[in-house]
Amino acid sequence: MQRYILNRLLLSIPTLIGAAALVFLLMRLIPGDICVVRLGGGGGVVDPKAVAVCHAQLGLDRSLFLQFVDFVVGFAHGDFGISMWSGKPVIYEIGSRISVSLEIAILSTVVAVAIAIPLGTLSVLRQNSWLDHIVRTVAIAGIATPSFWLGIVSILLVLQISQAITGSPWMPPIDYVSLWSDPLRNLSIVILPALTIGYRYSAVTMRMTRSAMLEVLREDYIRTARAKGLLEQLVVNRHALKNAMLPVVTLIGIEFAFLIGGLVVTEQVFNLNGIGRLFVQAVQNQDYTLTQALVMLTVAVFILTNLVVDVLYAWLDPRIRFG
Amino acid sequence: MTRRSGSLPANVAGALSAILVAVLATTPAPAQEPKRGGTLTYMIPADAPPSLDGHKENTFATLHATAPFYSTLIAVNPDNPSSTTDFVCDLCTEMPKPTDDGKTYTFKIRKDVKFHDGTPLTAADVAKNWEYIIHPPKGVSSARESYMVMVDKVENPDPETVIFKLKFATTAFLPALADPFAYIYPKGQLEKDPTWFEKNVMGSGPFKFESYDIGQSIKGVRNTDYYHKGQPYLDGFNAIFAAKQSVRVDAIRSDRAATEFRGMPPSARDELVKELGNKVTVQTSDWNCVNLLTPNQKKKPFDDVRVRRALALAIDQWKGAPALSKIATVHTVGGLVFPGSPLAATKEELEKMAGHWPDIEKSRAEAKKLLKEAGAENLKFELMNRNVDQPYKFVATWAIDEWSKIGVHATQKVLPTGPFYDALRHGTFEVAVEFNCQNIVNPVLDVAKVLPRSVYPENYGGYEDQKLIDLYNAMLHETDPAQQRVKMRAFETYALDTQVDTIMTPWWNRIIVHRSYMKGWKISPSHYLNLNLANIWLDK
Lengths: 323, 540
Prior knowledge:
The complex is a heterodimer.
Chain A: H1 2-29, H2 34-40, H3 48-58, H4 64-76, H5 90-125, H6 130-144, H7 147-166, H8 183-216, H9 220-227, H10 232-262, H11 264-269, H12 275-284, H13 288-316
Helix pairs in contact in A: 1-13, 5-6, 5-8, 5-10, 5-13, 6-8, 7-8, 8-10, 9-10, 10-13, 12-13
Chain B: H1 10-26, E1 39-44, H2 60-66, E2 74-76, E3 87-89, E4 104-108, H3 123-134, E5 151-158, E6 161-166, H4 173-177, H5 187-192, H6 196-199, E7 207-213, E8 217-222, E9 236-241, H7 245-253, E10 259-260, H8 266-276, E11 280-295, H9 305-313, H10 317-324, E12 330-332, H11 347-350, H12 360-373, E13 380-386, H13 389-404, E14 409-415, H14 417-426, E15 431-437, H15 443-446, H16 466-476, H17 481-498, E16 503-515, E17 518-519, E18 537-538
Parallel strand pairs in B: 1-9, 1-10, 13-14, 13-15
Antiparallel strand pairs in B: 2-3, 4-6, 5-6, 7-8, 8-9, 11-15, 11-16, 12-16, 17-18
Helix pairs in contact in B: 7-8, 9-12, 16-17
């Protein structure tokens, strides 16, 4: 198992370099100049001398080849460079935002799993009943509804309801504080985004749970377990659920990886200073170094999450062994 | 009529009451005494600014985040910010009269100013900063160097005196000096490392730096040593970055924030007023920003002045402006000069220029005739626009509709900012929706936008015209206001009517909605002005 994990980690390195090289090239193919955007975005005069100074400061006056060499050498030393927009180290830019995205991702996953697995299981056990229909409708609604739209509507609902009840509209605070400095305030900020993202996430997971459970419950060993006289609860929890979790865990892993850096619009709706919002800014500002690093971060998250999922397989199904 | 002892006759009492009511109605209510205390929370409608350095940056995101920490030499009068000519001292003791035929300005600097670390601010600091702005050393970026071309040198003969010596007398100097980005940094730090201010704050303004969470918020606390005694009234401020408009509107609605200082579209204003009534106050002003429809004269048929003139004549500014103002942040029809300026054209003067005729049917008939003469009757082209809703896309959609009325078929191509600028700079467009947005109303410099690229690097019209340059220079060097106005008209008429180098659209309209408890702040024609928060107080 350890050799397997080490091999997977080593294989991720060329994947990361490949992704970064692709982004390096693609970003430089997009027309535009970060210096002109930075100096001219307000509509005033863009002094060519100021642009030239900016190019020199950012190393954009050097050839593409030299820029790429610089990037690869930096990567080899663990130095991802300086953000071309803010001048701060890329590690700092990402580091100051990743905790927000991680917190939202974890909370949304908890919400999703807490909703999806019990409801998905219940739906199967009461197949074709009114409960099953409700659960399936809720799941389809969740898949069909964009989470950013749900976010906007939920904020409006909170405003309207609070105004109706108290006479003054209320919404959660908009300036983020960390969980460690003020847990209550932090939770009041993240609960709404976690619920809206978690709902959509749970909808997909619910459908997968239901479908996997349906398949497992039809297996011979489940019939044998029932024939032995085991309680239904034991049959479901001990025998069926664990076997049905393999595809569900895969899905949870993919969705979790997406939440780090993928919640571009949702983060804007809730004014969360996370990786998704940073990603959009970096691309819009044509901040090459930051965009490269963010792409590599996203690839790394997907690789790591898939690795964790694969390791979980071995725990869920002892028959799975890694050479 | 009976009269009780000790009381006035009814007719006398009635007359006195009437007089009292009249007196009370005409006597202005006494100004409220500002209350001290409280923290102002406001939104900054942007993501993280590129840096905190006012000398280097041009974006309002930097200014909204850092203006409260800094002082400037002079500023627009915060009690009269809508004026385009009323400047007052910030660091100086009084506004000087120019000497030496208008080429020398001598400022005396206050003696009671300290930087936030306690070190005194002297004329040497002011002089050094302005030297760096006007003549930046090698490797140092100054976004305002080109605004100060009239300055020959800055002298600092003693610790209290700064002298600006101009190459020529011009009315453009004082407004340029009042640029809100012209922060005064400590001389020692500026010389040691000019890039230090990109990530750090050390000013002498009404607020001291407290914290900056990048992309999240920036906070300041009252500077108890502030040299304008009694100010600031606030204990501190908290500025939160939020690029999305719905976040800002909801924040103001729920009183998570008092305001934002850029401007809102009419729909957001209407929503907040409807929901909150008199709990919010709306201030509006003409905005020193305008969209220009600029044909690329390096591409046929836009090299033909008849075609450009036809495009201008097709547009009904007078009807379009009030209609657009209901849905977009535009309002006032004007020429090249900001409408609130003494140099601006009157309605009668505008009506003589292409695109501003009072009779639109006659104007469009002339447009069709010109297109026919130029052989461009079924003209088709792409209008390149920036990917910004307000008011760019609204203005472009309106212009396309106006052109359709003379048989011109235009389509809109929207690009993100980077590729938009790239296309402008490489001339790969036919007609573009440009914009001219300046920090401070300085018409003499602001109209330079239409000068050929050989003189003004941000002109993308693809033309050269020595006559236009000569007209501009004559106007720039004119110091008599009446004569300068005449020369401005000549320049404007040549650019907009004779050559039609660009086509005006209605000037932007700045709408600020703020919580009514926020007092002391007055709107100005620029979202870069009047932002040091020194005169704001909270009536709650």
